[in-house]
Amino acid sequence: MTFTVAISPNRVPFQKNIWVWLFLIVFSLIWISTFVGTNDYNNWMLENTLTVLFFLFLLISYRKYQFSDLSYLLITVYLCLHVYGSKYTYAENPLGYWLKDEFHWSRNHYDRIVHFSFGFLLAYPMRELFLKWVQYPAKVAWVLPIEITLSISAFYELIEWAVADIFFPSQGDAYLGTQGDIWDAQKDIFLAFLGAILATTIVSLLKRIFNLYDNK
């Protein structure tokens, strides 16, 4: 089976793309399981509002530009991490508790993992979007994912504040998941920023080592 990356010249049509179908099926099953198994449907709805918007963007944009299979894989992994967090709330996530006990952490760090993953897993698809779809210069396409990750992370923290303090105060604690850390928002932003820097650095090094370049 052909597996495309950002510099691949061609894309496999959706109907024949086994990889995309596999990603879609896996995500759908996990997404449904998080809804069926959650004990807080209001929090699940709040957490998945942006998931729905993101999913709609992928569907609407597909006709104009089809991402590579690697980008869809990274997006799928991130969305699975996010919706799994929405099942239990981030602060009460079982995987986070297991990691806490295993590494003797002071708190459930699952929310930090997802914030880091936002930058680490989505920087590559964002770069592909700017490089292949918008046709920006290569240098700009490298920098923009980092800047946008930082901007979106800060904006998301503002959304969390609005949800917790203005619109849905009853869901505030579950949605925020600060666990008593007054610097939680700043740390989340930094981790996403760090993830984007690491992702772009790794991709850049791999391209140099294996001489993986296209006409950009």
Properties at a glance:
216 residues; mainly alpha; 72% helix
What gross morphology would you assign?
globular
Helical amount among residues, as a percent range?
over 70%
Report the count of strand segments.
0
Question: What is the overall pLDDT average?
Answer: 87
Counting copies of identical and different chains, the oligomeric state is: single chain
Task: Compose a concise summary of this entry.
By secondary structure, this protein is mainly alpha-helical.
Please give a structural write-up:
The two termini are 26 Å apart. Helices cover 72% and strands 0% of the residues. The mean pLDDT is 87. By secondary structure, the chain is mainly alpha-helical. It has helices spanning 18-37, 41-47, 49-61, 69-88, 94-103, 110-133, 138-167, 172-176, 184-210. Helix 2 (41-47) runs antiparallel to helix 4, helix 6 crosses helix 7 and helix 6 packs across helix 9 (184-210). The chain has 9 helices and no strands.
